[in-house]
Write a structure and sequence with these properties.
The N and C termini lie far apart (34 Å). The chain has one domain. With 108 residues, it is mostly beta strands. It contains one helix and six strands. A hairpin with a 5-residue loop joins strand 2 and strand 3. 6% of the residues lie in helices and 34% in strands. The longest helix has 6 residues.
């Protein structure tokens, strides 16, 4: 594993070298939360996936780099709040017409 650094590909290309580390479950809004880790630098990422099954084009995902995860307190119910508190996060999905980008603040 390479040393953690600001130049890692995971900071510019969502899911470039990420591997699933664990599922955190679903929140009250039926969004799925999971923890991912970069195979190159070891950075931890929090992903939130949300879709309204009855509505075409409602699928969206968010992915944000987080500090060393505290598995005792990290759960699906706090995923949205955690992502919204970050300086930035990636977003994408059919809700955004297939576009990906970076944003901050409240999730759409």
């Amino acid at each position: 594993m390479a040393a953690r650094g600001d130049a890692c590909e995971c900071l510019s290309v969502p899911f470039a070298s990420l591997t699933l580390e664990g599922e955190l479950g679903m929140d009250a809004e039926l969004g799925e939360a999971s923890l991912w880790r970069c195979a190159r630098c070891g950075r931890a990422w929090l992903r939130y996936l949300y879709e309204l099954e009855g509505f075409t084009g409602s699928g969206r995902w968010y992915l944000g780099a987080i500090a060393k995860p505290d598995f005792a307190t990290l759960d699906a119910s706090r995923c949205r709040q955690t992502l919204e508190s970050l300086d930035w996060y990636f977003f994408g999905g059919s809700y955004f017409d297939g576009r990906t980008g970076k944003a901050s603040g409240p999730l759409a």
